[in-house]
Design brief:
- There is one protein chain.
- This protein is an alpha/beta fold.
- Helix content is about 45%, strand content about 15%.
- It has eight helices and seven strands.
- α4 links the parallel β4 and β5.
- α4 runs parallel beside α5 and α6 crosses α7.
- The chain is globular.
- It binds NADP nicotinamide-adenine-dinucleotide phosphate.
- NADP nicotinamide-adenine-dinucleotide phosphate binds next to α1, β2 and α6.
């Protein structure tokens, strides 16, 4: 399927690994030039080189913390007028709400709510003027079905989802869409790192443990980041302008609801 986005420009945040990387690769395969970001320069440069080699597209790597105003300014300076913005960042830690203080909450809300909102604010006016924009927020299935030990993630991401639910309806007539990807379990470092202790207890290598853990889920397995990237790219298609303010759950059927 031709997504009709050849030669468009995208910012993909937090993209050296995992879901951001998969999203970036899928966009580049569809002819999009990229500015990608993450904090660890060596890993980011390696990913940029891989995407360039695989797709022949321009990939500019900006190593910085996207959750800071300085980091966002660097990324925006490298791509002031993106056609596509992919918001992503590391997720808040698991834990017990009794252990989280105000600073912990501020960090979670900054990373997973304020940061994407600030980036949207920076690019959306230009997108409206150019009548062309696709914004995708990588969030979590926890927005739809709260995960108790990920309380800060549940809260911060639901806040973002609420805000963009309104904004998406204010900008849609200008061919600017804002949608969310509600991420279920995908085989990335983030998923692995959260289950290392459980795998040790079970006496299994981590990937074997995860294979077992998701055997009884509807899909019978965790997701492949490649699948995530392809689904995300679809939301950025030229013909996806009528998909407005939606939150697409990619969880292999784990959330059981006949509708909605
Ligand atoms: P991952 O494999 O750990 O990759 C995270 C990426 O984000 C890395 O490139 C990392 O590079 C970058 N990053 C983290 N913090 C950053 C920051 N402050 N500024 C810039 N880059 C940053 O994680 P993932 O699985 O792709 O997860 C992506 C998002 O989806 C997270 O918010 C996660 O909570 C959420 N999610 C994932 C799953 C899943 O199953 N994988 C499920 C639900 C939700 P550096 O560390 O070098 O910066």
């Amino acid at each position: 399927m031709d997504l009709g986005i050849k030669d468009k420009k995208a910012i993909v945040c937090a993209a050296s690994k995992g879901l951001g990387r998969a999203f970036a690769m899928a966009l580049a395969k569809n002819g999009v030039d990229l500015v990608i970001n993450s904090r660890t320069a060596s890993e980011l440069e390696a990913t940029a080189a891989e995407i360039r080699a695989a797709t022949g597209r321009s990939v500019t790597a900006i190593a910085c913390d996207i959750t800071t105003p300085e980091g966002r300014a660097k990324v925006l300076a490298a791509c002031p007028n993106p056609d596509i913005l992919v918001n992503n960042a590391g997720g808040p830690p698991r834990g017990d709400f009794r252990d989280w203080n105000e600073a912990d909450w501020a960090k979670a809300v900054n990373g997973n709510m304020i940061t994407p909102i600030m980036l949207i604010k920076s690019v959306v006016v230009g997108m409206i003027a150019r009548m062309c924009g696709r914004i995708v927020n990588i969030t979590s299935g926890s927005v739809k079905s709260a995960i108790p030990e990920l309380g800060m993630s549940n809260g911060a991401r639901a806040g973002l989802t609420g805000f963009v639910g309104g904004l998406a309806r204010q900008v849609a007539r200008h061919n600017v869409t804002i949608n969310g990807h509600l991420t279920g379990p995908f085989l990335t470092d983030r998923l692995r790192s959260g289950r290392v202790e459980a795998a040790k207890k079970a006496g299994l290598p981590i990937d074997e443990f995860l294979t077992q853990a998701f055997k009884n889920s509807p899909a019978g397995r965790p997701g492949d980041p490649l699948e995530f990237g392809e689904a995300c790219a679809f939301l950025c298609a030229a013909s996806s302008g009528f998909i407005v303010g939606q939150n697409l759950l990619l969880d292999g059927g784990a959330f059981n609801s006949t509708m909605g």
